[in-house]
Structure formats: structure tokens, C-alpha cells
Design goal:
Length: 90
């Protein structure tokens, strides 16, 4: 257990950041999972409609440093590519 005032504050701020980061990552994973399910069920309209919100969420998380910028770019690219491939099949 920390005894110094600054160490105690650091523990508290780290816990707050961890909670915030975990919530953001969870939100991101949920959105990606929902788009993947829409792609698997060949619901192009729904997948295309939910892509901008997911892209925005990924970019915000990258901007805040919760995920790496290239990680966000890769995820966005793969989702867009999967939607485009699904639309091309029809």
C-alpha cells in the first residue's frame, strides 16, 4: 500500500483511467461484433449504416491513446473491406 500522497493519488487516477479505458474497449468490441454479425447474416444495409458510428468510435479511442492509431486504421479497413465484399457478392 502506498504511503506518499502523490503515490496514493497516482493509484486513484490509474484506477479511474483503467475503468474509462476498459469501458471504451468494451464499447468498441460490441460495435465490431454487431457489424460482424450483420455481415454474416448478409444484412448489407444495416452493416453499411452502422459502419460510420463504429469508425468514429475507433478513431476517438485511437486519438485518446486507448488503442494504437494503426490498430484503429486496420480494424476500420477490414470492416469496410468485408462490407464491400458482401455487397459485391449480391
Amino acid at each position: 500500500m502506498a504511503h506518499h500522497k502523490d503515490a496514493i493519488k497516482r493509484i486513484r487516477t490509474s484506477a479511474e483511467a483503467r475503468t474509462r479505458n476498459r469501458a471504451g474497449r468494451s464499447r468498441m468490441r460490441t460495435q465490431i461484433r454487431s457489424i460482424r454479425e450483420q455481415i454474416e447474416s448478409n444484412d448489407a444495409a444495416a452493416a453499411t449504416a452502422s459502419l460510420p458510428a463504429t469508425m468514429s468510435e475507433l478513431q476517438k479511442l485511437a486519438q485518446k491513446g486507448i488503442i494504437h492509431k494503426k490498430n484503429a486504421a486496420r480494424r476500420i479497413s477490414r470492416l469496410a473491406k468485408a462490407i464491400k465484399a458482401m455487397e459485391a457478392k449480391k
